[in-house]
Design goal:
The protein has two domains: 181 residues, NAD(P)-binding Rossmann-like Domain (Rossmann fold, 3-Layer(aba) Sandwich); 225 residues. The protein is 44% helix and 18% strand. Bound molecules: NADP nicotinamide-adenine-dinucleotide phosphate.
Length: 422
């Protein structure tokens, strides 16, 4: 890989998130020696969009999913491809295949867990043999909770020589002042990806916290101790906690796989712990009944998604087809000016098997889904491109295992500040 002309390529740089990843790398190129390029199927559109966004981008690369040779040519030019072309279930596989066969590291933002599982099954061995890292779910889902939980586990092991028994993750998001717009919350790309999962053949896997676990005994233990619960609940200080949004079925599977991969690396058996997460619904004390009401609606939405995923194809597939026509398409989503001014935090409260407690916090800024995510992925791409910046390990990896907990220092540059509380 040493003779590659570029460090990082951003494929899908015309999309809502891809544009922000390109903007981040353009900014980083001004202060580092990174060599990068944006890539898309329509170069004219790409140039126009990046110009409008004021992004100082190098010569773009043309790559189209319908022309597999263009994907290999793109992959062969870089050390890392960041893939922003979703829904991944429909479009992701050929890009991963091109990267693995070209010896190029790969990262994406998918949250489509049946797809992640199928990629592990098909590409983990070839990627290990090729020395390639395939890193999926590398945005707001699931990098911050994944790194936080691994850091809590490593710290507990260093301090007390103990493993974790449980982790509660609470996320609090504060939007900028002013009236919200419908497009602020979620993009057409994300909604179309949720619909793609709902219509998929193996959609019933989404609610399985062990969907990414290879070892059958470990998978059974994960399901026993850490089923995904969707009911609203009280959190620390009496806060109202709703299920994670936009989907409650993504982070748990990644976090349990990280424990399995960490155990393999340490030569110890995996010890599944109970993992629970949710979003803190803030507000004035007087609005408490309203918050429980909102949490109830969010829980019912996730339960509906799970019900659809578990129903037979005769219910699920027509439903997904109808939904695909109704929900906004690619191109819909928060505009660049709506992504600033957000702050958010994540608290991972862990308990060890002997009741010691540890908390890892992340304090961050930028819209979590489309700005902080883009910066995280951009920084992850830079790390993957650097020699010896990440643990020496190849295969289909979770963000925390691929990047290692010492990468948290680098994520400061991307607006994420990790800290271990006493
Ligand atoms: N995990 C997380 O935290 C997180 C956060 C944000 C987004 N995401 C995921 O990231 C993905 C992208 O989201 P988004 O909102 O940025 O989507 P988007 O705005 O719809 O962008 C999709 C991109 O895919 C490109 N594309 C589609 N078909 C193509 C083809 N045949 N060849 C080449 N490029 C093609 C589009 O190019 P054109 O412009 O030419 O159509 C566009 O650049 C979604 O799956 C979403 O769920 C995840």
């Amino acid at each position: 890989m040493n003779n590659r002309e570029l460090d990082v390529v951003v494929f899908g740089a015309t999309g809502i998130t891809g544009r922000q990843v390109a903007a981040y790398l353009a900014e980083r190129a001004g202060e580092s020696s990174i060599r990068w390029a944006p890539a898309a199927r329509d170069i004219g559109k790409l140039r126009r969009l990046l110009d409008d966004a004021g992004v100082d981008a190098p010569e773009p690369i043309r790559a189209d999913l319908n022309e597999p040779s263009s994907l290999s040519a793109m992959a062969l030019r870089a050390r890392v491809v960041l893939n922003l072309v979703g829904p991944y279930m429909l479009y992701g596989r050929p890009v991963i295949e091109a990267c693995v066969s070209s010896g190029t590291h790969y990262a994406d933002l998918t949250g489509e867990m049946p797809f992640v599982r199928s990629i592990i099954e098909e590409f983990d061995r070839p990627a290990r043999e090729a020395g390639v890292k395939v890193v999926q779910v590398c945005g707001f889902e699931s990098l911050p909770p994944d790194l936080s939980v691994l850091l809590a586990g490593e710290t507990a092991n260093e301090r007390w020589g103990q493993g974790l028994a449980s982790v509660d993750v609470e996320v609090a998001v504060k939007p900028p002042p002013g009236l919200p717009r419908a497009s602020d919350a979620v993009s057409g790309g994300t909604l179309q990806s949720l619909v793609a999962v709902a219509g998929a053949e193996d959609a019933d896997q989404i609610a399985d916290p062990a969907v990414l676990i290879g070892d059958l005994a470990v998978a059974a233990a994960v399901r026993r101790v850490s089923a995904i619960t969707l009911a609203p609940r009280s959190g620390r200080g009496g806060a109202v906690i709703a299920p994670m949004s936009p989907a409650a079925f993504i982070n748990p599977a990644v976090i349990h796989r990280t424990e399995e991969l960490a155990a393999v690396a340490a030569g110890r058996p995996a010890v599944p712990f109970r993992y629970r997460e949710g979003v803190v619904l803030g507000g004035r004390p007087a609005s408490l009944p309203l918050r429980w009401g909102v949490a109830g609606v969010l829980s019912a939405t996730q339960a509906g998604l799970r019900w659809i995923a578990r129903s037979g194809p005769s219910v699920r597939q027509p439903f997904a087809r109808t939904l695909a026509r109704i929900v906004p398409a690619s191109g819909f989503g928060p505009s660049g000016d709506r992504l600033q001014g957000w702050t958010w935090s994540l608290s991972a409260q862990a308990r060890t098997v002997e009741e010691q407690q540890i908390e890892v916090r992340v304090d961050a800024d930028g819209h979590p889904g489309y700005l902080a995510t883009a910066r995280m992925l951009g920084e992850a791409g830079m790390l993957l491109a650097e020699d010896r910046a990440t643990p020496e390990r190849a295969g289909c990896l979770t963000p925390a295992i691929a990047l290692g907990t010492s990468s948290r220092e680098r994520f400061k540059r991307a607006g994420l500040r990790f800290s271990v509380q006493a």
